[in-house]
Amino acid sequence: EFLKENPSPGLIQIQLDRTPSYFDSIRVEGFPSDVMIGKETNTGKIAGVGNRSEKNCFVNGKPEQLGYLSTLRIKEEYRNSIFLVKSYNFLKELHKKSKVKFYLTTILKENKLARAILTSKRAGLPIYESIGFYHTYIISKNQKINTANNNYSVQVAKEEEITDIILFLNSYGKEKQFFPIYTKEDFLN
Q1: In terms of Cα–Cα distance, which of 42, 69, 36, 44 is closest to 54?
Q2: CB-based contacts of 176, cutoff 8 Å, min separation 6
Q3: Spacing of C-alpha 167 from chain mean position
Q4: Are 113 and 9 in contact (CB under 8 A)?
Q5: According to the model, what pLDDT value does residue 28 have?
Q6: Once rounded to an integer, what is the mean pLDDT over residues 81-98?
Q7: What is the model's pTM?
Q8: What letter would DSSP give residue 34?
Q9: Which of 6, 34, 159, 170 could form a disulfide with 73 if both were Cys (CB 3.0 to 4.6 A apart)?
């Protein structure tokens, strides 16, 4: 409910729906994952949330354990408070227990407020550096794909095809910076 009530701002607002299981849905971001929840002291209501995950990815063509920070949502009344600094201090403690060298975060181009705050280099915040743009293509689950005039077809993969799919993705992925390294568990869990 908190995520639905606090979409990312901008021209396109993304409202995260992690149902039916929040924890199952974040597994695609990596494992292990830590979910951080900040609560209002007086009421116990959620004031903000965020995730920290670890994932094997290709960095310069070689496997590397990366951290990924995601789903940062803070109620508007806490955005200019000490809340964010306290959150990142907690994150530093989690980081000390991991082997991750650096983290990635994606921020919508239109979310100027988050970009301004996270790249401000304020005391207590980590140093965010832009490394470029990431384009995401979306096909609506209700959209029908017309393949009649094309030389390809779209179909659901069979379990016996997973090994070939993984070999293809990992071969292709070595050439792409931060591409995830896939295993059978990624598809069968």
Answers
A1: 69
A2: 58
A3: 24
A4: yes
A5: 86
A6: 88
A7: 0.82
A8: E
A9: 6
